[in-house]
Amino acid sequence: xxxxxxxxxxxxxxxxxxxxxxxxxxxxxxxxxxxxxxxxxxxxxxxxxxxxxxxxxxxxxxxxxxxxxxxxxxxxxxxxxxxxxxxxxxxxxxxxxxxxxxxxxxxxxxxxxxxxxxxxxxxxxxxxxxxxxxxxxxxxxxxxxxxxxxxxxxxxxxxxxxxxxxxxxxxxxxxxxxxxxx
Length: 182
What we know:
This protein is mainly beta. The chain has one domain. The protein is built from one helix and twelve strands. It has one helix at 73-78; strands spanning 6-8, 13-15, 42-48, 56-63, 84-89, 96-101, 106-115, 128-131, 148-151, 155-161, 164-166, 169-171. Strands 4, 5, 7, 8 and 9 form a five-stranded antiparallel beta sheet that branches.
């Protein structure tokens, strides 16, 4: 069982500790779901502003409402609600692109985690987080609509800028967000 704890105290994010990886049928495949030979709703994410190339990246798709956003995957799947998780080892070099297949066209919220030490837990002091639409992070998690996007019947492409703890705040690494690469 994989466990992911998202405990960003400074922005109030939390994901339950009993999260489990959904069955294979519930998960997207890294990049494969965005092939032009496959049809259907998906989101291709260009990952920008990585602090380094250590650990694992985890892209998660949630329903676009505040009660379900960042809810336990176990609860969402048991309730028949959409949830997808795509883990990927951070590539050593080059552009980083991930893809997640959506269950149907509709509105969803996306979060991207950078588990730099690959320990299955999110640590405020070292790990990174990003959301669809790249909201400025304050002392609370963003609302689902702020981290949300509409997914049509094909592949939608977006960019997510990673945020890391810096002093008393959380934000993009200076000089990297615009360039897109560490």
